[in-house]
Write a structure and sequence with these properties.
This protein is an all-alpha fold. About 5% of the residues have low confidence. The longest helix has about 35 residues. It has two domains: about 90 residues; about 60 residues, no CATH class. It holds the Pfam family Retrotran_gag_2. It comes from Vitis vinifera (Grape).
C-alpha cells in the first residue's frame, strides 16, 4: 500500500513544495518503519518527476548541473524551496509612489484630508529644501577639507563684519536722532 502511495503521489499545481515534501517524506518514513526502506536515489528521482510545470526549468538545470544519482535529498529540497520562494515573491522594483486622487473625492474632501495633504506638502518642501542645502554644501566641499575650513572662516568673518555694520548704522541713527 505504501509503495503504491509513493508511486502515485504528485505535487498539486497550486500546492507548495513544502506540503508535497512533507507528504512524500511521511510515506518514506512509514515505509522505513515497516522494514521496506526507499533509497535516496528513488526519492530524488520521484521528487524531480512529480513537480508541476512551473518547476521544469529548475528541474532541467539540476539534472544538467548535478549528478542526480549522488544528490542528497536535503540538497535537492533546499534548492527547490529557494526556487519556489523566488517564484512566489518576485523582486520589487524601486520606484516613486504618487498618491492618486479620484475626481469624486476632490469635491467631497474634508478639512482633515486637506490638512493632511498640506502636511504632506510641507514635509515634501522641507525634505526638498534639505536636499538642496546638502547638494550646495557638497558642491562647495568638493575641493577638500582645507578649502571647507577656509570657507567656514570667511563666512564667520563676513558675519562679524555684518554685525559691525549693523551696530554702526544703529549708532548713526541714534546719534542723528539726538540732533533733532
Amino acid at each position: 500500500m505504501l509503495t503504491s502511495r509513493f508511486k502515485t503521489t504528485r505535487m498539486d499545481d497550486h500546492g507548495t513544495f513544502g506540503e508535497f515534501h512533507a507528504k512524500l517524506m511521511d510515506i518514506v518514513n512509514s515505509s522505513f518503519n515497516l522494514g521496506e526502506p526507499i533509497s535516496n536515489f528513488k526519492v530524488v528521482r520521484k521528487i524531480l518527476r512529480s513537480l508541476p510545470e512551473r518547476f521544469r526549468a529548475k528541474v532541467t538545470a539540476i539534472k544538467e548541473s548535478k549528478d542526480v544519482d549522488s544528490l542528497k535529498i536535503y540538497e535537492l529540497v533546499g534548492s527547490l524551496q529557494t526556487f519556489e520562494i523566488t517564484l512566489v515573491s518576485p523582486r520589487k522594483a524601486k520606484g516613486i509612489a504618487l498618491k492618486a486622487i479620484k475626481e469624486e473625492s476632490l469635491s467631497s474632501e474634508s478639512e482633515d484630508d486637506e490638512k493632511m495633504s498640506e502636511g504632506e506638502l510641507t514635509k515634501f518642501a522641507k525634505k526638498f529644501k534639505k536636499y538642496m542645502k546638502f547638494r550646495k554644501a557638497k558642491k562647495e566641499s568638493n575641493d577638500g577639507k582645507k578649502w571647507r575650513n577656509s570657507i567656514g572662516k570667511e563666512k564667520k568673518m563676513e558675519k562679524g563684519v555684518k554685525k559691525e555694520l549693523k551696530i554702526g548704522r544703529m549708532l548713526h541713527v541714534s546719534n542723528s536722532s539726538w540732533r533733532c
